[in-house]
């Protein structure tokens, strides 16, 4: 094989690495693609020849970082973007950051495609978010609840559901996730 640093495109037929070679520092945790633009999240600090703060957009034809640069920060050297999901009007990012897109956003944010700035959507999550999925009228945020005070062990994964046009969350609790959990995806009041 051809050497690649943390990120590669592999041909579906031959299983060989393509010419795509953006050269990423640190860990890649999330990928989403729109046309020739690959959105990358993780602990990365350099990608496609540019300094980036945990999230970036890379042109898949040139392997170079685009000007899109929302710069996630706030958790020190452990700051990370765990998940990226695309909607028609924004890139949704989730992780443990407290600032992204030039504004304060606690662990989840919507970022403009045009200039990488945060939109007005701000669910104010109280702990690390591990996944994000945008579907139609809803944004699903997933994570692992902190230690349960009663059981002394990790509780089941929980989800919060947000409507993109409102700041008021609709909470639901899948099997095994109690309404008493104050897990990482509990929306702020």
Keywords:
189 residues; mainly beta; 4-stranded antiparallel β-sheet; 3-stranded antiparallel β-sheet; disordered C terminus
Short description:
The protein has no helices and 14 strands.
Task: Describe, in plain words, how this protein is organized in 3D.
By secondary structure, the chain is mostly beta strands. The protein contains no helices and 14 strands. It has strands at 28-34, 37-42, 46-47, 50-51, 55-59, 81-86, 91-95, 99-100, 103-104, 108-111, 131-135, 138-144, 157-162, 170-171. Strands 11-12-13-14 form a 4-stranded antiparallel β-sheet, with no helix packed on it. A 3-stranded antiparallel β-sheet has the order 1-2-5, with no helix packed on it. Mean pLDDT is 80; it is low at 144-157 and 165-189.
Task: Spell out the blueprint of helices and strands.
Layout: E1 28-34, E2 37-42, E3 46-47, E4 50-51, E5 55-59, E6 81-86, E7 91-95, E8 99-100, E9 103-104, E10 108-111, E11 131-135, E12 138-144, E13 157-162, E14 170-171
Label the overall shape: globular
The end-to-end distance, rounded to whole angstroms, is: 51 Å
SS-derived structural category: mainly beta
Q: Low-confidence parts lasting 5 or more residues at pLDDT below 50? A: 144-157, 165-189
How many DSSP-defined strands?
14
Q: How much beta, percentage-wise?
A: 25-35%
Radius of gyration: 17 Å
Question: What's the mean pLDDT score?
Answer: 80
Q: Enumerate how many helices there are, as a single number.
A: 0
What order do the strands of the largest sheet run in, or round the barrel if closed? 11-12-13-14
Name the helicity range.
Answer: under 10%
Main β sheet profile: 4 strands, antiparallel
Strand/helix succession? EEEEEEEEEEEEEE
């Amino acid at each position: 094989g051809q050497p690649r640093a943390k990120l590669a495109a592999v041909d579906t037929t031959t299983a060989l690495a393509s010419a795509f070679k953006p050269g990423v520092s640190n860990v890649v945790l999330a990928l989403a693609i729109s046309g020739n633009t690959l959105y990358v999240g993780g602990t990365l600090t350099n990608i496609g020849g540019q300094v980036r703060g945990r999230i970036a957009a890379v042109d898949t034809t040139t392997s170079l970082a685009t000007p899109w640069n929302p710069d996630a920060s706030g958790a020190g050297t452990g700051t990370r973007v765990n998940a990226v999901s695309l909607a028609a009007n924004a890139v949704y990012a989730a992780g443990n950051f407290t600032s992204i897109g030039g504004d304060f956003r606690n662990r989840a944010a919507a970022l403009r495609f045009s200039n990488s700035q945060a939109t007005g959507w701000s669910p104010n999550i109280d702990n690390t978010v591990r996944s994000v999925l945008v579907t139609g009228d809803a944004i699903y945020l997933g994570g692992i609840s902190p230690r349960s005070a009663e059981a002394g062990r990790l509780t089941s994964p929980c989800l919060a559901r947000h409507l993109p046009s409102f700041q008021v969350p609709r909470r639901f609790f899948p099997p095994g996730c109690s309404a008493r959990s104050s897990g990482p995806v509990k929306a702020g009041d």
